[in-house]
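Course assignment 3, question 2. Fill in each field.
Student: A.L.
Task: Predict the tertiary structure for the chain below.
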Amino acid sequence: MKIGIFETEHFEGSYPVIKLFDNNINDITVFTYSNAYKQFQHLFATDQDKYKWIVKPDKRSKYGFIRDMFREIRKRKMNVVYLNTISDNFFFYAIMIFFLRNTRVIVTIHSINSYFEYKKSFSLRRMIRYIGRKMLVSFVKEFNVVSMTMVSHLQHKLPAGKKVHCVPGAVFEETFCIQAQPGIREHINIVIPGSVDDRRRNYEHAFMLLHLFEREKTPVTITFLGRFYSDYGKLILEKCKAEQLEYAHLNYYEYDTVDQPEFDRVMNEASFVFIPSVINTIIEDGVADVYGTSISSGNLFDIIKHAKPFIIPEQLQIDPFLEHSCYRYKTAEDIAVFISFIHKNEGSYISLQQRALEASQNYTIEKVRERNASLFDIKQL
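Answer field:
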């Protein structure tokens, strides 16, 4: 089969899609942008020659690249086109899909409500984006969401006859899973992956936790593993620089992209992943979303990939597979008490590690293919 996969920014989320379609029989072409391609080169360091890469030239317009992609799909008579991230030009992608009559098209929706709700404004661009999203819903027959908790929400909103798949934003490959964290009684590494963005995470919880650790003289390092986004990010960066602590430590990165090898190194050395997720948010065009219902935290896929125990707010919905390897909290004080207990009880941490590994083993390439047989079964294709 000839497969086309399109990705502009969520390179880490397209990695599993590529691996799932790669059965040593399919002919795979990846359409992408230069920034994402740089990270793909890290992710596929040993086997990127297995795929054909079509990268948008920096001077080529996004609209022009859509036309290039359409021509390539038609020219090569691709059987399946998987659009993993559409974040702009919705109208033109919808038109492209409309004319791909003989091609099976799957579109991943990352933020569900923005496809079905419109918040009035004086922005013509917002209205055009909404119309484009509505056209996509009309023309596309198959959609994907990255979390099991999003499936019913999208299915309820779609017209009858539309199919919803659930291909997660990560697969677990045990040969690449390296547990390099220090002994839990020596030092505890807590990592918050992703952009420092108040639409997604509450960083005040992280600072509160840092000071609680300092007060209790607990040897902990908290790492903000991502870029500082927007004016809020700049404020948090200044707050980071102002911290002067003796026992607790704060690490962060002052550049736009943390390259994949460094990201993986820090994740491998993490004792816990901390997701101080907001629940109610607004990310797309003024439309309200709910984490765990209409949108998913990408941090969960870092947890799957690296098989890490994690800490989340009490209200956050997650895949059932992950429930037994997490600690749910109401306040920062709850987390401090939990970490203090774990620091003194190595056996409890080892048990958590084992549960995290068992959770991730539900996301192997084989098991995700089994759950999505209509997408990845050769006979079905």
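Instructor remarks: The chain has 14 helices and 15 strands. The mean pLDDT is 95.
Grade: pending
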